[in-house]
Amino acid sequence: MSRSSQVIDSTFESAGEKAGLEIWCIENGRLVLVPKSSHGKFYTGSAYVVLNTVLLKSGPPQHDIHYWLGNEANKVDSVLASDKALELDAALGSCAVQYREVQGQETEIFLSYFRPCIIPVEGIYSSQSRKSNRETYKISLLTCKGDHVVHVKEVAFSRSSLNHNDVFILDTASKIFQFSGCNSSIQERAKALEVVQYIKEHKHGGKSEVATIEDGKFVGDPDVGEFWSFFGGYAPIPRDSPSAVQQQPDTPSPKLLWITLQGKLSQMGTNSLDKDMLEKDKCYMLDCGNEVFVWMGRNTSITERRISISASEDFLRSQGRSIGTHVTFLTEGLETAVFRSYFDSWPQTTETKLYDEGREKVAAIFKQHGHDVKELPEEDFEPYINCRGILKVWRVDEDEVCLLPPSEHTKLFTGDCYIVQYTYPGNERDENLFYAWLGRGSAMEDRVHAISHMSAIVDSSRGEPVMAQVIQDKETVQFFLILQTLIVFKGGLSTRYKKFIVENGIVDETYDEKKVALFRVQGTSPTNMQAIQVDQASRSLNSSYCYILQTGTSVFTWIGNLSSSSDHDLLDRMIELINPTWQPISVREGSEPDIFWNALGGKTEYPREKEIKGCIEDPHLFTCTFTEGYLKVKEIYNFTQDDLTTEDVFVLDCQREIFVWIGCHSNVKSKHQALSLGVKFLETDVLVEGLSLETPIYVVTEGYEPPLFTRFFTWDPSKAKMHGNSFERKLAILKGRTSSVEVPVRNSWKGYSGETTPDGLRSKSVISNGLRRSASPASNISGTKLNSSGGNRRASSITPISRKLFPGSTPYRGGSGSPTVKSISPSENGKAIQVDGSASHSENAKAIQVSGSDSDVISLIFSFERLQVNSKDPAKDIDAAKREAYLSEEEFQEKFGMTKQAFYKLAKWRQNKLKLALNLF
Known about the structure:
The protein is α+β, with helices and mostly antiparallel strands. The chain contains 20 helices and 40 strands. A hairpin with a 7-residue loop joins strand 3 and strand 4 (about 60-70).
């Protein structure tokens, strides 16, 4: 319904054009705009209309309309507010969700607009400025309920109002007291402190004293005595009798009722609900007991909608329902997740991006006819972590994990599972990010072992690394940016994969240059490109991509008609990576020779339209409780960093990936447990958005949140370093003691005792920020077999990853490019000897200082033969990426023809080339 076709209130003329809140109040039978300075101040005798507008990154704005009714508002104003809310929806094109809000029973989404709370004011709103001549401060007693949003209600100033279950605020002229019932939760007490802060700032000008009172603790505390003096002295609060405890009513089965044009309700004759039951030219009421929905078809008029709203409210009154029953009004196509969850089936739709899809298709048609047109820009993704870190990859093989050489890091097989460790410099320390990559054709036992091995590595690591699970074809963009280039081959190398295909008589598809193979090339840049081996059949082609076809005798590159020039550049680069000796034959879509189709088993139909990515909505935050196999979730609206309470576990749902955040004081004690919770969340699909069970899952720990996670918040790092429970932290902030609650960077050397490390020793190195970095924790896992692909267990086998981003960052290198290494190896008697202030051991080697660069190197000396990659007697516990650093100055000069100082001044690529020629890389 367009604005031009409706006569609307002049105050709605520009409503919804800007993001944020707009509030109107009914005054003397007309609608008046409430100034922003008065937002959040609601009068008990008035009725309001509230509009919240969110401007999304793509697509139309999102609107929510609420009409708020004060407990003392008259019926005429209440009905007018309801009508004006419907009129506002029509003015916005019938694209808003409407909520009825009753004082004291507001929805959480409404309260989230007015953090930390709303405290209704007695009286009636007036647009004329009024000055208060109150001489004496009125003492008030408020009760606070809620652990994430707070319902604040004024109660009688009497001892009988207090109880053991709630949190109370006593507001006096000189001091604000918070009384916490012994049965109240820590989260409720913490949120009530935010209300105390609000009262202090808005009613006392920030000058009032604050005191916190614990229920049952009163000996020797002057604040406690002062608190009880307002109630005539201390006396015990009676315990609630069993009958006083409200039993949770059984949730009734939802009932769908058709609302006739005469305002009558007729129940539908079925217990099973289906979307097809909702007709476009009718209105319905879905009665779910404690909440009611009114659904209005797209083809209904504003008069029909007004009748439906009135009929639903009359129905609730006639049923004697609680005044706090939440009522939500929905227009077809804007159904909330809660509403859709009551239906047995609700088809997924992709209507929100129709205009973008149309533009894409028009561009594709023009390109097919040879016209050069601009396409919609590719989705841009900024890497939120430093991508110039260190990469390690292990392949899972039964109960072992095999460390792969750097040349194999970016070559994965669909029948295998891998563990990827990425180490990058953070603000105060090195950070680790672990991925378990699960191939689509991998055995379930290998998948379980991959998660188990990764969890063991993470649990033994310093700090609290981020852990993630990704499944082939569902990788995150960040995963691709870390690897830069990725080639995924069909088949597998693991024992279980080989055993599976033999037992099931399946042809081994493991990649072989002599066989026919088809690769799809994808990505956005040279630092984000992949070649994925697909079925060698013409149905695997797609006009949006470029492909490499290997026939055994020749190689073809196939260029789709909808591919771009950047795709063609990636195609050339991928040819060089897979096999630089290939001399490919380039063919364009539509001009393929017969030999091309014959290699693919004949020509068949394949997709020829531009692939359109679905619209990604803003993320949603949920608090999660997982007990006895049942997951209970609750959405946190308009979330902030302060909502991440340390006692809880949260899931941040970003659609293409989810993050499980573990609070330090939560009952989830392991990342493996948190990963299981994430899987359960995907199964539940709270928002009914069709989340895939293969959606990537990240697990992050409080205090160790990576930028990948914090980018969704306005993040204050100092809050992440505070200790204590939620209440203690809020109280410290309230009393200005934030500096005393910060803790130093936590060091957790959990797996590094002599009993759990190979040979009973530790291997350490110093990185560029001066912090000590341990050798790979994977080599220190007790009970896990770790083999490198060459059969030798090494403390480190690493590949530095270069990135254009963060150009000033050169991780793990000194100012002149020289490595800074401190190594420890065992001595015969097991005692450590000091070398320049660092612990060291002697293993047929002497410790010397290598000077001549800006950053001196302290290193052990080994012979050239022991340092070579294929040595029969390799040096143990060295940094394999810095093998040359362990040579003596004399032998270094002999082999490289220059000093170490001169070598480290060379460009990195030249260093690697020289090392490669000497088999040291």
